[in-house]
Design goal:
elongated
Length: 90
């Protein structure tokens, strides 16, 4: 037994996580609409689109994609310039 297991600590798994082979992944034989997105539980993003495989042929498959940016809400307070300079009344 290793020192980690003797101390009762949880041992690290040495398995490689392959997103498209997990049980939650979309099935390979199913038909999806072009542009369909899927996010793995680890946070990796994939999109179903046409791309070129290693042999150079076009195919529809799941390809890595950047995350979709979600715009942040605009803050309700005024800018520093507006707070320091007041409109002149008169």
């Amino acid at each position: 037994m290793s020192e980690l297991s003797e101390r009762g600590e949880q041992m690290q798994s040495n398995q490689v996580h392959v997103c498209l082979e997990t049980p939650e992944a979309p099935t390979h034989g199913a038909v999806f609409a072009d542009g369909t997105r899927w996010v793995c539980q680890c946070g990796a993003n994939y999109v179903y689109r046409q791309g070129f495989n290693r042999a150079g042929f076009a195919e529809m498959d799941w390809w890595p994609a950047p995350a979709v940016a979600v715009p942040q809400q605009r803050k309700g307070h005024r800018s520093l310039r507006d707070r320091l300079t007041h409109s002149r009344e008169g």
